Amino acid sequence: MRHRTIIEPFRIKSVEPIGLSTEVERVELLKDAHYNPFLLRSKDVIIDLMTDSGTSAMSAHQWAGIMEGDEAYAGSRSWLRMENEVQDLTGMQHVLPTHQGRAAERIIYGHLGGPGKIFISNTHFDTTRANIEFSGATAIDIPIPEGQDTALQHPFKGNMDVGELDRLLKEHKGHVGAVILTVTNNSGGGQPVSMANAEGVAAICKRHGVILMLDCCRIAENSWFVKHREEGMEGLTYREIAQRMFALADGAVMSAKKDAFANIGGFLSFRNEALAEACTNLLIITEGFTTYGGLAGRDMEAIAIGLEEVFDPHYLNYRIRSTTFLGEQLHKLGVPLMLPIGGHAVYIDAKKLYPHIPPAQYPGQALVSELFRLGGIRSVEIGSVMFGTYAEDGSLKPSRMELVRLAIPRRVYTQSHIEYVAETFEGIMAEREQVKGMRIVKEPKFLRHFTAHFDTLP
Ligand code: F0G
Question: What is the pLDDT, as a whole number, of residue 188?
Answer without folding.
Answer: 74
